Amino acid sequence: MPGINDRPEEVERILELADEAGATNVGGVALHLRGEVKGLFMDWLRDRRPDLVPRYEELYRRGAYAPSEERRRLSSLVPRRAQVEDAERPMRGVDPAGPISSRGGGARRPAAASQARLF
Fold first, then answer.
1. Which of 2, 64, 81, 94 is most buried, by CB atoms within 10 Å?
2. What is the reported pLDDT for 79?
């Protein structure tokens, strides 16, 4: 999220935590602020990060999606890579176009405690 967790060292830590939680694929996408979510998020931002309100108002002035140049910037923070780690998880891929998913189809959700560490 722009200004919140988009510094390279923050992204790297998020990737490390996702890997520890068992993610096999991670994508870097811009925040979508559809419907009521936009108002709720902007209220949260005004309360917690008023310094970022003008930036988000500009980014989302046309609707629910960040401009394409911002989406490309955020996507570029998550490098493409695939490594052989072990027989249990032979591929660790980071794909800016894809969601977190597990081998064998269907998304695998980490335990709530592990998931909470991601944020």
1. 94
2. 76
**Pick from 99, 108, 106: which is nearest to 29 by CA?**
99
pLDDT along the chain (119 residues), means of 10: 90 90 85 94 97 96 94 85 37 44 42 51
Structure confidence at residue 117 (pLDDT): 53
Residue of 10, 31, 29 lying closest to 75 (CA atoms) = 29
Among 18, 47, 16, 44, residue whose Cα is nearest residue 31 = 44
Q: What are the extents of the domains in the chain?
A: 1-29+78-119, 31-65
